[in-house]
Amino acid sequence: MIPLALSGFIHLWNPVGYPDVFFDEGVYMRRAIDFLNTGNPQEGNVYDHPYFGQIAISSILYATNYSDIKTTNEPDSLQSLYLIPRVFMGILAVVDTFLIYKIVQLRYGAIPAFLSASFFAVLPFTWIFKRILLDSILIPLVLGAILLAIYSTKSKHSSIWIIFSGTLMGLAVFTKIPAVTMIFVVAWIVYGNRKKFSDVILLLIPFLLIPLIWPLNAIMLDQFDLWQQGILWQTQRTNNVLDIFGFFAVIDPLMFVLGLSGMVFAALRKDKFLLLWFVPFVVFLSSIGYKQYFHLMMIIPVMCIAAGIWIESIHRENKIKKKFVYFGIISAVLVFGFTSTTFLIINDISKNQFEALSYILKNYDSSSTVLTSPVYSWILYDVFKRENVPKDYSFILFYPVTTEKTVIMEDSHYKIDLTRGPQLQSMIDNSIIVKTFDETMPKFDSKTYPYTNMQATGEASKIIIREWMHEK
């Protein structure tokens, strides 16, 4: 199938080189390693997300004998530590492509299905699904739940399909709370089949029970107050949702225009399936503090679906009567999207990150405290068994440094977090630069499409190694 072939190339080619390795990816890798080592899905006392994300990642690491991989302190070897989880995310993206095709095929037909799956496969912003993020893990669960709900309307044994659909939705919420908004479209599909509330209740039982594992585990650990604080913290971010959509429009205007046009068309047609998928999440995103650009991953599939349905309707309703013009437009969009995305993914932009980490490993030992992003800290601590490596540089906001020398890896994310506390700026002011790692990728104009996507890959920009000798 063409969409699957395109998706396989886009999401599995150069899995670690592009995009760069993001701050949060290091967090989830560290938690997965911690779960492998301890058997406890709760790392420390920070309750920001449920557990299925680290359980899924750690399961892949366990199945592939990840702990037996021999790693040296050379950049290429260090970079390979992210290969298995990144390939896993790429495979999930290919699965997403298949699920999108099947969902649209069952509801709207083969042509919209082909277009929707192809858009998802090739349009540039779908590179985000290559990252090791909770959203990458929950999307196939949500899509699978929707597909099973559709199958329940076509089967004599609908109850079984409904239970499995609710189970996948429960696992999606057990991965990340915003997935709860997807229950509206799934429940609408289930209820619309036989108009029985008992079917909806059957759906809700696993949907509600599975995520309850999270607070129940907190109660068992006598940390329910911390769980409540973690939930509250997640709802107090201040990013403007319009800024997030604006950023989406800048980095991938083609997907944004096609998807938004498709959603407007869905609203005019009163397509409840698409609207119940899209609107509740946007309302949630507008009112709750989950507001990073990658949070939009939840609605990328429905925007691709809406775009595919809209473009197919243009021909079906004879607005473009000549077939060669219609197919020419589709081919142009797909070729342009594929070419644009290829221009991005062929670049090894993360190499700079692992050259900097290699320098740390070769020049410093456990006698120095290393303040760095989670991208690197779990490798230093869990793989190379270095001591005095906190989970991330925010450690100095709460605890004093006890070693004579402190090493700081100052990257773009460190600079963003300077507002979190004066200690971070103090580290910069009182340290000296010992090494600088400039970007290894070619100089792209990030204001020119498709390289506008580079605006979301800042972790691999200049990395500065600093030393701070403490006064005795």
> What is the approximate shape?
globular
What fraction strand?
under 5%
**Relative helix content:** 55-70%
Q: State the helix count.
A: 21
Q: Strand sequence of the main sheet, in spatial order?
A: 1-2-4-3
What ranges have pLDDT less than 50 throughout 5 or more consecutive residues?
none
Structural class: mainly alpha
H-E order: HHHHHHHHHHHHHHHHHHEHEHHEE
Mean pLDDT: 91
Oligomer: single chain
- Main beta sheet strand tally, sense and closure: 4 strands, mixed
* Ends apart, CA distance between termini: 67 Å
Could you write a compact summary of the structure shown?
The protein has 472 residues and is mainly alpha-helical.
Notes on the protein architecture:
The mean pLDDT is 91. The chain is mainly alpha-helical and 472 residues long. α19 (374-383) links the parallel β1 and β2 (405-410). The chain has 21 helices and four strands. α5 (83-108) packs antiparallel against α6 (110-122) and α9 runs antiparallel to α10. Strands 1-2-4-3 form a four-stranded mixed sheet. The protein folds into two domains: 2-70 and 80-345, no CATH class; 351-469, no CATH class. Helix content is 60%, strand content 5%.
